[in-house]
Amino acid sequence: MIDRRNNSGELTAPEGKVCPHCQHLNKQDDNFCTHCGLKLIFTNDACAKLCILSGEPMGATFLLRQGRTTIGHDCGNIIVIGDEHISNKHAIITYESGGYWIEDRQSKNGVYLNGNRVRDRQLLVEGSVIKMGETVFKFEI
Fold this sequence. Notes:
Strand content: 35-45%
Distance between the termini: 31 Å
């Protein structure tokens, strides 16, 4: 199935919503994926975003929603990055207690927040710069 995103970053197809986890085509009015059960999140659920400052695809923006957002090279992640220096399961960003937190998932090359290696869970703030492999992101609220 072709991956299509509307202006809000939602995966869509003319017939309905595409699950970002399993790529299953759901009805337009479904709130949960009928295949894997993932909540199909709407634009008004998005509170923050990651923008690629350096790396491919340069300038891409990923919406972060409440809950967990996995990042890695493997297609099972919510955000998939093709950078060969990024591990299959590299990092996770979690919305909790009113903030977004980043954790390294025991990646080979580490996660860097504002130039410092992330060893424990760290709070992201407006303008935080995150480096994974050769890819650099900016966190925006």
